[in-house]
Amino acid sequence: MATEIKVEIIQRQTVKPSSPTPHHLRNYKLSILDQIAPQTYIPILLFYPNAADATSNDVMATNERCQHLMQSLAKTLTHFYPSAGRIKGDAVIECNDDGAEFVEARVKCSLSEIFEHPDAVMLRRFLPVEPESREAGTGTLLLVQVNLFECGGMAIGFSISHKFGDAATLSTFINCWTAAARDQSNMLMLPKFGAASLFSPLNFSNSEPLPSVEVDNEKFITRRFVFDASKIAALQSKVTSSVVPKPTRVEAASALIWKCKIEASSRSSSNTLGTSLIRPSVFSLSVNMRKMAVPLLPENLVGNILEFSTTNYSHSEENSTVIDLKGLVAKIRGGLEETKERCAAVVVFDSNEAWQRTKWYMNLMKNDDMDKFICSSWCRFPFYEADFGWGKPSWVSYVAVAINNITVLMNKRDDNGIEAWVTLSQENMALFESNKELLEYASLNPRVTN
Known about the structure:
Elements: E1 7-15, E2 27-29, H1 32-35, E3 41-48, H2 62-79, E4 86-88, E5 92-94, E6 100-107, H3 111-116, H4 120-123, E7 142-149, E8 154-161, H5 167-181, H6 195-198, E9 220-227, H7 229-239, H8 249-273, E10 281-288, E11 306-313, H9 325-343, H10 351-365, E12 371-377, E13 395-398, E14 406-411, E15 418-425, H11 426-432, H12 436-441, E16 443-444
Parallel strand pairs: 6-7, 10-12, 12-14
Antiparallel strand pairs: 1-6, 2-5, 3-8, 3-13, 4-5, 7-8, 9-15, 9-16, 10-11, 14-15
Helix pairs in contact: 2-5, 7-8, 8-9, 8-11
């Protein structure tokens, strides 16, 4: 499917802030959490049906919509001025108004063809840049691609540098842009800057290099699994225990995915070694510190305001080969509780301690004696509210970065179900996607429902 669809770039333009950035704001300090963030782009796609199908009386033609997007983006960049700049060194964004990249593309198919069975490789073609591009740390920090389909539908692809912010920052940016596009200044949630004052940057010029991540488009494969609301509810009921009497949707889904990944790795190892081997594993869940700090940090605080909750699993030899799903949920909950305690002390945040913890975490991820499974939840971000003036998106899709053993969870449009984008090695994915327990609760890449 991916090779059959033609995506033709019509034009590339640079959009600069509609008002120049004041001189006293020209140097934006990165925090220590920005400095140690991966040098990748955070990608997302927002799909919109044909504007002629919208209920709004103010329906714009395609060309008008593109012009409207560029003009409102220029206004938005005046508020998000660092995203129009360039990183200088490893601690500062020079807010020089170089601008964001705006790409227009024509797609030789209809949205319904994309929605039939979304292909992770094909979706990458709707982005303005490869998510793994090192330009995220040296070049344009924000890129947008507007994909125009033959049916009149549209997909807006966002790529924002992870060195500038996290998924919450991307959500704040989109909220700000949509409010500007609808001329609703009263609903404009302006970004808050100043994370560097809470999480002081460090000088890395004479020290060991910053962490990097291994990416490989050839080795890793991504699949989409959809948990409908009723299945999620059934799964939550199944994993309820005295330790976790009210498991969340994310805890239940991520525990099942962790269990099935362990089993896939075990079967893969047994194929290699000739004996069944359940390897020790570590499960890491990224946590939005804004919601856990005491006092709470603003939701619109820009930057990588992230911590990692980690928990280990080691299969006891005297136990059966059955992995206790309720036990995995309890481990995830325990890790989150420990992380909450660390986040609560954000007012006395120690950047050197954060750097040491990052080195420990990176060494843990490089440990070949155990499996590493990383999960990130975007379920609470209101991406489905992104209305530029022609209605809300009919589908919001993550686009996988080619990093092994990563899962990203997103809300379905109904806000109750979950879409899980899982990246594994090709061998492990073949075992994972055929797991009967997984398929009892999740469907493998079903049609996107409008």
